[in-house]
Design a protein that fits this description.
Radius of gyration: 18 Å
Strand order of the largest sheet: 1-2-3-4-5-6-7-10
Number of helices: 1
Strand content: over 45%
Structural class: mainly beta
Order of helices and strands: HEEEEEEEEEEE
């Protein structure tokens, strides 16, 4: 697992040393949900703050780094002794996307684009009632999305599927996460 994380960080780092065409700081909301074998999990609103850099014209490569807060409500109707609780997870999300500007290109005033790629989530903290050591320090996923750029503004939406479990905590199988990420921000040509 550490080997994959190192490769991902090297790819992101290589992009930082190349001349970036567009720097994209942004903020957004996310709704995360978890698969579970016991009980029910329902996503609540979370947040993200970070930036990405896009390289290319019609086809592009875009690594990013975001600090993310995810939140999910958990209940188990089959186990009345288990109290309902809110699961909060914070960490760094490192998406690496490959995209296509469907209408326009990186020089256009208005652009419609589609993208997809892989991501890593590096856990930094968990909510009350949990021990961070019970969770994997990294989880990985794949995502697909679409975005619109207009002048110096951008808005994008992506759906992410986790390919690794977050962890097993006691009798609660936290499982894999699924999330909807909506991000808006500014575009700066470098």
């Amino acid at each position: 697992m550490k080997k994959y994380l190192l490769i991902l960080l090297m790819v992101c780092g290589a992009g930082m040393y190349a001349q970036a065409q567009v720097l994209k700081p942004g903020v957004g909301v996310n709704f995360s949900d978890f698969t579970t074998n016991s009980g029910e999990a329902s996503g609540k609103a979370g947040w993200q703050l970070g930036a990405s850099m896009a390289f290319g014209n019609k086809f592009y490569f875009e690594p990013g780094l975001y600090y993310v807060g995810k939140s999910t409500d958990y209940s188990d109707p089959n186990n009345p002794s288990q109290d309902d609780f809110e699961a909060d997870f914070n960490g760094f999300r490192i998406p690496v996307a490959v995209g296509l500007n469907i209408l326009g290109n990186s020089e256009s005033t208005a652009v419609l684009r589609a993208f997809g790629g892989g991501s890593a989530f590096l856990l930094t903290s968990v909510g009350d009632g949990f021990d961070k050591d019970d969770f994997n320090s990294a989880s990985y996923g794949v995502f697909a999305g679409a975005g619109v750029d207009f002048s110096i503004l951008f808005v994008e939406v992506a759906y992410e599927w986790s390919v690794t479990d977050l962890s097993d905590v006691s009798t609660i199988d936290v499982g894999k996460s699924r999330g909807l990420f909506a991000t808006a921000g500014l575009r700066f040509r470098l």
